[in-house]
């Protein structure tokens, strides 16, 4: 079964899925952040089970360890990590947070 949060990371330089990217999920509060889960992208650049199946409404954060990913490939990067904050609403059952990355740029959107 798919968890409440999933992601798909693609490497725009190679044109391939970004396998082996460490990803973490955080619950963000006004004065702190609580780490909830850790995972690593699979051979297809996906994490299908990041965190619990149910999340309370609020602000969450997904962090991608892009510096380590590019360092493992001998590529310099401007971003040691990419952090994406997003809101979870009551009644929504799934959030897909994809990331398209390169050493000097990235993009994301609300996936389906």
From TrEMBL:
Q: How does it assemble?
A: Homotetramer.
Q: Name one GO molecular function term.
A: hydroxyisourate hydrolase activity
Listed PANTHER family: 5-HYDROXYISOURATE HYDROLASE, URICASE AND TRANSTHYRETIN-RELATED
EC primary class: hydrolase
Q: Does the keyword Membrane apply?
A: no
Q: Which family does it belong to?
A: Belongs to the transthyretin family. 5-hydroxyisourate hydrolase subfamily.
Q: Which Gene3D superfamilies match?
A: Transthyretin/hydroxyisourate hydrolase domain (2.60.40.180)
Task: Report the residue ranges that make up the Transthyretin/hydroxyisourate hydrolase domain in this protein.
Answer: 1-111
Q: Which organism is it from?
A: Krasilnikoviella flava
Superkingdom of source: Bacteria
Q: What does the function comment of this entry state? A: Catalyzes the hydrolysis of 5-hydroxyisourate (HIU) to 2-oxo-4-hydroxy-4-carboxy-5-ureidoimidazoline (OHCU).
The answer to keyword Coiled coil applying to this record is no
Q: SUPFAM superfamilies from the xrefs?
A: Transthyretin (synonym: prealbumin)
CDD domains, A to Z: TLP_HIUase (cd05822)
According to the record, the signal peptide region is none
Q: What is the designated name of this protein? A: 5-hydroxyisourate hydrolase
Per its UniProt record, what SMART domains does this chain match? TR_THY
Residues binding substrate are 8, 46, 109
Quickly give the catalysed reaction.
5-hydroxyisourate + H2O = 5-hydroxy-2-oxo-4-ureido-2,5-dihydro-1H-imidazole-5-carboxylate + H(+)
Identify one Pfam family in the record: Transthyretin
Keyword annotations: Hydrolase, Purine metabolism
The Enzyme Commission number assigned here is 3.5.2.17
């Amino acid at each position: 079964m798919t968890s409440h949060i999933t992601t798909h990371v693609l490497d725009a330089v190679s044109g391939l899925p970004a396998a082996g990217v460490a990803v973490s999920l955080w619950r963000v509060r006004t004065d702190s952040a609580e780490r909830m889960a850790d995972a690593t992208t699979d051979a297809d650049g996906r994490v299908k089970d990041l965190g619990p199946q149910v999340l309370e409404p609020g602000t969450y954060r997904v962090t991608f360890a892009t510096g380590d990913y590019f360092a493992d490939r001998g590529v310099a990067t401007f971003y040691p990590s990419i952090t994406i904050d997003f809101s979870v609403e009551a009644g929504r059952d799934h959030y897909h947070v994809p990331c398209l990355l390169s050493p000097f740029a990235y993009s994301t959107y609300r996936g389906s």
